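Schema walkthrough. Field components (list of strings):
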Amino acid sequence: MSPHPLRNKAIIAGVGESEIGKVPHMTGLGLNAQAARRALDDAGIAMDEVDGLLTAYSLSEPYPMLGSVLAEYLGLRPRYGASIITGGATPAVMLSHAAQAVATGQAEVVLVTAGENRATGLSRDRAVQALSAFGHPYFEDPYGPHIPGFYAMIARRYMHDYGVAREDLARVSVQTRAHACRHPNAHMRVPITIEDVLRSKPIAEPLNLLDCCLISDAAGAFVVTSAERAGDLKAKPAYLLGAGEMHTHEHILAAPSLIEFGAKQSAEQAYRMAGLGPGDVDFAELYDCFSVVPIIEAEEVGLAAPGEGAALWRDGRAALEGTLPINTHGGMLSHAHAGAAGGLFGIVEAVRQLRGAEGERQVKRHEVALVHNEGGILSSHATVILGNQPV
Amino acid sequence: MQRCAACGRLRFPPGYLCRECHGADSDWVEVSGRGTIASFTVMHRAPTPAYAARAPYVLALVDLQEGPRMMANVIGEDALQAAIGDPVEVVFEARGEDGFKLPQFRRAAR
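Field assembly_structure (string):
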């Protein structure tokens, strides 16, 4: 079988993060521009070299043509551009699209950004209301659900079927926070304990406040170009080795299963494209909108057996010093979550770790990273495998 | 519930075509209103002020005997004792001024 035509063809040349946390002096567009500026500076690529622009969506600044608005704001006239909306899966989907564009000559340099001022651009009630719009308008919303409620039902069923303890979920939040404490730009950098998680405000049983991702002002960006340029860039490139997607539903009432999701098929495609398997993965950045989610994803992407995902955190493997560090930047639980930026920071962090210069946060083995993004209610999945060299 | 005229599967939520066989024809059949709880949560933080007065309330996914999965609240005095696998039966809850009734579920005898 010949190698996948996209393997090794595209690189992430630069990455950037905006200011993160409560940033009331900046708009969502401004945060995107700041992240974009930083990503291009990181790559050593000038803004006027950008001829492709991909972005996602914004609940706080809901422009119907966000991609065009952002291009206007940045002073860009891209020949390749779109807004892509697959919820939290969007960043990894955008990376895949950007790679296709540079590999086929549709663009030379694709700038990818996502993020919004979700913490200060929306009141808490409006944010909760906007996020409630993810339910089915006729057959879910009349029952008073919200996104944590949907995920709580997944958590409950997962714990029921596999006999997983409440503390196992809490441990994910605790470990992830410990990683954020070593990240200079993370939103939350005060250590927490399992007790803190169990005593935090109940949201939707079994999930408490500290099982839920943050609401941040934040944007992230990365720059994709052809692997042919790998030698003449400022920063060490990260190669796109594999990418896969799977979209199974949007509303939880239509999910094919409450315990098996599309991450498995998404990851299988990414591994196949890369010619690698789970055993080749040195560290992983898994979408963690809620504490239970990276446990389920770790299993689905093959890093743990079904029902055994929580052991990665219980026995320390998922820690920065462990054999399979997970969510090394602090994830969406503690680093930042602002719409599609949440998963994008997983890509940013993977690139940084692959370069090997993250100091006290640096993982030991850093040749191959797996990033999994998911959107909706474990509805849309996108997996990318990145490497510090071609395979 | 809507039933596919081509393959006989029930279609929920209702729609133009069958999500299994993609046939477009359908008819409507009565279902038992009985099912079991596939999963549930006790909602403490409501999505909007309108639901806050009901909290804590039970949000559930119910598998009907006939197959389709529905979302609903489990209501009734013993709702907070809900568990996965519990049998439930439909009740219709009046909502609003215009006589609209919302299908809900209450725990039923095993």
